[in-house]
Design goal:
With 233 residues, the chain is of the alpha/beta class. It has helices spanning 2-23, 86-107, 136-144, 146-159, 204-224, and strands at residues 27-29, 47-48, 56-59, 70-73, 77-78, 112-113, 121-132, 167-176, 182-192. Strands 1, 2, 3, 4, 5, 6, 7, 8 and 9 form a 9-stranded mixed beta sheet that branches. The protein is globular, with a radius of gyration of 19 Å.
Length: 233
Amino acid sequence: MNVMRRWGMVAMAAVMALMLGGCAVGSYQARSVDVKNSPLVNPDIFEKGKDDQSLYRYVNPKMDVKQYTKIMIDPVLVMKDGELDKDELQDYQNLANNAFVYLNKELEKSYQIVKSPEMGTLRVQMAIIDADSAKPVRNTLSTLMPIGMGLSVIKYAATGKQSGVGEITCEMKFTDASTGELLGAALDKRYGGKELSKLWSSWHNADDALQYWAKRTAFSLCEMRGGADCVKP
């Protein structure tokens, strides 16, 4: 009994450490992503990101963000490798629709949103490559039960992903809307965190990641143009 109690306390402490360390809510970056799964740009141009940048990224050395005052945001694409059944396709499309709304919400704060190519317009394209829903039962057990917590900690240590949470992989592409010149691209993957109020929501982890990427895009563009009020997500 003492051993089991001790194990429960260790598991609880480990999970609390994860939660306090920033993996409890929202989403967090995966350790790796298959760079070959790049539907928008040639994967050969990518370089590994550093620190909190996307896992892979490309920035055209001639890119001058300051010349762009308008943004054209394409409908977000679903480019899952493999067939999706009717329900899965609807789930993916819901994520794509949400991502489009989030991008517009964040970018309209600094840019004029336009619907067609114009001079001084940056074109943003986004594709959802893969996504997986959270598993509510497993997510709950691995958040509230000592044994489940311990197993989740072990899984996180080995894979970088906690038990029962969702994930999503996306790519973004930035071009000059008038010329089509490639200006930048990013490929990233994020896992969901443990959010007690949303344990029974299947797709909130993926949705949290989409909100993060929209805010991160706005922040990165702000930094590139030397803005003084850039808000880091």
